[in-house]
Amino acid sequence: MVEKFIPKTKAEALDILSKHDCYILAGGTDLMVAKKNIAGYLPKFDKDVLYVANIDELKGIYKDDKGIHVLSGTTMDEVEKSPLVPSLLKKAISEVASTNIRHFATLVGNIANASPAGDTIIVDVILDAELKLESKDGIRYVKAEDFVQGVRKIDRKPNELITEIIFPEVNYDKEMWLKVGSRKADSISKVMVAGIYKISGKSLENFALTVGSVSIKPVRSHDIEEELKGMSLDELKKHKVAIVEEYAKLIKPIDDQRSTAEYRLTVAKNIIGKFLDEIIEGGK
Amino acid sequence: MKISFKMNGKDVSLDLDPSMRFIDVVRDVLHLNGTKEGCGEGSCGACVVLMDGKSVNSCLLPVANAIGHEFVTIEGLKETKAFDVIQKAFAEMGGSQCGFCTPGMIIAAYSLLKENAHPTEEEIRAKMSGNLCRCTGYQAIVEAVLRASEKGEGLW
After folding, report:
1. In terms of domains, do B72 and B100 share one?
2. For A4-167, CATH number?
3. B77 and B7 in contact (C-beta within 8 Å)?
4. What number is the ipTM of this complex?
5. What proportion of chain B, given as a percentage, has pLDDT over 90?
6. How many C-beta neighbours within 10 Å does residue A226 have?
7. Which domain holds residue B114?
8. pLDDT higher than threshold 60 for residue A284
9. Min distance A190 CA to chain B CA atoms (Å)
10. Is there a contact between B54 and A98 if contact means CB atoms under 8 Å apart?
11. What pLDDT score was predicted for residue A164?
């Protein structure tokens, strides 16, 4: 018999998680589809369920010297409307599913679900965000980049609850977000790319890029980023094709119902190329 | 488990399994059959209801997450002036044909207008992309929302 828990406080939730291996349901917009039954019947859960939407302590957004903290029960709609949140994250959120879904889906739920097509995950990764996990044993912080380990695989122990995602300040002043789906809105991504950079003088001071929906986890290369930092824009222009090819080596897309591997690779390369052109042009 | 929330202005307290989908509570327990189920997976928007004034897919909302919130279905919205304006606009612009998507469309339109009383055509298309219609081709619906926005000044 599957048990269902509806705690009102974080302490209660952590206590339940110390004794039961649960699905943690916040907004439920992914889990309710995964566990869907025939209309009129209860969803088919194969283990206990912990409903966390009634925990007020898990709602809100605040800023301190560590960065912007988005508590795990905060909806995408609330994050999108917050004046504190980086605009790159808002752009990604504005293209997640539909308005109706964003009214109750949570931002943290997107990375916790760890679908390769999760739009906001590549933004969490590019902005060096960190997840805060709490349990009765204590607190643990994990970088978003390490948190997602594969398709629906995350670095969370059964007794842990994600309580926050924290966005530190990152040094950039230009950003890029592009999602390719089969419709302009309310679609699941075929490919998405996020980029940030900062030019000082005639060279690249900072640069980062992430690609999603093309591999089991977000693609980010610190090696390529390090190579590019400090590079003059003339050099960047010269090496552009080679840089795109370096990224192409890391992209391992699949054929599925939404798209083909060939399409995804071609489109990802084109977007990266376009982004590099934009940087080269921007320096002029 | 005892579960309490507000539905169309009235307090409701029911003994339910917390994993029950809100759409099943709305239709089969409360017998508010204006809310429709289309896809059952959050894509079509036929099942949207207002939760604290915002449109949500009731097929993806477990009733556990409804505790303490205020809901309005199309039956509740029907009692408002805002509904009159939106309904007339849909009728005048041909925004409803078979009618299956219409309750969801009206709820989504109301939720949008409440947040943005003067949306552009593009904003309507983007914000209402989670509500599908197989009859109208959407143009008539977009025009109906634009008309409602014009006629319903100050109502949202």
Report:
1. no
2. 3.30.465.10
3. no
4. 0.97
5. 99
6. 10
7. 81-151
8. no
9. 17
10. no
11. 98
- The residue out of B41, B58, B76 marking a domain boundary is B76
Looking at A114-221, list the stretches that DSSP marks H as alpha helix, in order from N- to C-terminal side.
Answer: 119-126, 144-147
Nearest by CB to residue A186, choosing from B1, B54, B129, is: B129
Contact state of B60 with A28 under an 8 Å Cβ cutoff: yes
Which residues, in sequence order, are CB contacts of A186 under 8 Å at separation 6+?
A97, A98, B43, B129, B130
In this prediction, residue A283 has a pLDDT band, given cuts at 50, 70 and 90, of low
B106 and B142 share a domain? yes
Q: Hey, what are B114's tokens? A: 């409440």
Q: What is the CATH number of the domain that holds B90?
A: 1.10.150.120
Asked if residue B156 belongs to a domain, the reply is no
Contact A6 B20 (CB under 8 A): no
Q: Does residue B120 surpass a pLDDT of 90?
A: yes
Question: For the segment A112-140, what is each residue's pLDDT rounded down to a tens digit?
Answer: 999 999 999 999 999 999 999 999 999 99
Whether A254 has a pLDDT exceeding 90, the answer reads no
Domain edge (last residue) among B76, B99, B127: B76
Domain spanning A174-282: which superfamily?
Answer: CO dehydrogenase flavoprotein, C-terminal domain (3.30.390.50)
Phi, psi torsion values for B83, nearest 5 degrees? -60, -45
Cβ distance B67 to A6 less than 8 Å, yes or no, reads: yes
Contacts of A36 in chain B (CB under 8 A): 40-41
